[in-house]
Specification:
The chain contains 9 helices and 7 strands. By secondary structure, it is an alpha/beta fold. It has one domain: 3-Layer(aba) Sandwich (Rossmann fold), CATH 3.40.50. Strand 2, helix 2 and strand 3 form a beta-alpha-beta unit. Helix 3 packs parallel to helix 4. The radius of gyration is 18 Å and the shape is globular.
Length: 269
Amino acid sequence: MDLDFTDKVALITGAGNGIGRATALAFAKSGAKVVVVDRDADGGEATAGIIRQQGGEARFVQADVTKSAEVQAYVKAALDAYGKIDCFFNNAGIEGTVKHTAEYDEAMFDQVIGVNVKGVFLGLRHVLPVMLQQKRGAIVNTASVAGLVATPGMPAYVASKHAVIGLTKTAAGEVARQGIRVNAVCPGPVDTRMIHSLEQQLNPGDPAMVGRRYQAAIPMGRYVLPEEIANTVLFLCSDLAAAITGAQYVVDGGRTATGGAVTQALQQG
């Protein structure tokens, strides 16, 4: 995808690996200056280092997205470095454990909601004022197909991603007339650490078997690649999407089009 983000500043949470790293690299390749945010210092520094090795400009800020002061700090760091935030990929998230609702650990539920919902809210809370002052900006929140359909055994994750879609629509309606767009991307199963963690939880003895069954149930026959999610994020942040706000874009290889087939594959894992 050939999109030009020259002289733009992209702020990305959860950029130390997976979808976040792929999107950071894509923004940099398209000319943006990138602020990499992650709790994982090694992963975040690695992402920023790759960008610099490829001739781009990036800096890393370590932050826990559940803490308001640390969110404020990564926003301030972006402004101190580059003076503006044009694009915000509000991406950090965790999967939690696989347990039915009747057995789900309360502390784990709080942890998933803290990162996936409060973290997204705090990102919006502290980036939106910057964009309102600028009178421009584009935000993409990472939801999931789990924000659209249920996955038995993942109550916290499903609840959190439904909430992200709600936050996206609410914020989009509040700021549309101020030149700011807010959308969500809804990945299906993506070939990252998260899906392989779920495979391991479902069948510690043979996680690869779960992966084969899961991919066979996806109409495209494979996991989505992180770079394919990145392409959608860049599109939603570009002028090509100037009339798109409050939307959720599904990138799932046809997973939601087939109803429960993939869910059944996971349950059988």
